[in-house]
From TrEMBL:
InterPro entries, alphabetized: Hexapep (IPR001451), Hexapep_transf_CS (IPR018357), Ser_O-AcTrfase (IPR005881), Trimer_LpxA-like_sf (IPR011004)
Annotated protein name in UniProt: Serine acetyltransferase
Origin organism lineage: Bacteria, Pseudomonadati, Pseudomonadota, Gammaproteobacteria, Alteromonadales
Keyword Repeat annotated: yes
EC number of this enzyme: 2.3.1.30
Family to which the UniProt record says this protein belongs: Belongs to the transferase hexapeptide repeat family.
Keyword presence, Transmembrane helix: no
One Pfam family from the record: Hexapep
Length: 186
């Protein structure tokens, strides 16, 4: 199901605060780096095909990419309720597919290899410095630990650490996803 732009923004805002109000929206847009970045990213994607309106959102997104030293492509397919806790040094391309309730922190890399790109499920948490590389699939409810390098498919509910990555448990991400968006909270 594809959400409207306003619903995507509300779902993102919910992930940061567990609530949605106009005051939280304004406060987050002014002071929350992750929300500000994802707002301009989503706005740039929303207006990408409109030649009259696309300049300003793309300009603002490009500005924040430089400010936060991030190289996330606004054309990436990112599901609702995206939460980026620390924007700095994060990168992924336009062919990446990401599910809902996705949380990342700083220095995360999601990259393709030989023309194939990762597909990431719902309720996934990627820790600081983690790398997800190649045409792999990461299942639902997965935690990828800090500095893990993932180059193979990861099943649902796995907790992965290390370089090369290995599964250490199947306890999943239930304790790692704050303010989980269920689709009825808006």
């Amino acid at each position: 199901m594809t959400l409207k732009f306003s619903e995507l923004i509300k779902s993102d805002l919910y992930r940061y605060h567990g609530n949605i109000t106009i005051g939280l929206f304004i406060k987050s847009l002014l002071f929350n780096k992750g929300f500000k970045f994802s707002f301009w990213m989503r706005l740039a994607k929303h207006y990408d095909s409109n030649p009259l309106l696309r300049f300003f959102p793309k300009f603002m997104f490009s500005y924040y990419k430089r400010v936060f030293v991030s190289d996330i492509n606004y054309r990436a397919d990112i599901g609702e309720a995206f939460c980026i806790r620390h924007v700095f040094a994060t990168t992924f391309g336009e062919n990446v597919v990401i599910g809902r309730n996705f949380t990342i922190v700083h220095s995360v890399t999601i990259a393709g290899k030989n023309g194939h790109f990762p597909v990431i499920g719902d309720n996934v948490y990627l820790g600081a410095g983690s790398c997800v590389l190649g045409g792999i699939t990461i299942g639902n409810n997965v935690v990828v630990g800090a500095n893990a390098v993932v180059t193979k498919d990861i099943p649902d509910n796995a907790v992965v650490v290390g370089n090369p990555s290995k599964i250490i448990s199947y306890k999943g991400s239930s304790n790692s996803i704050e303010n989980k968006y269920e689709g009825t909270d808006l």
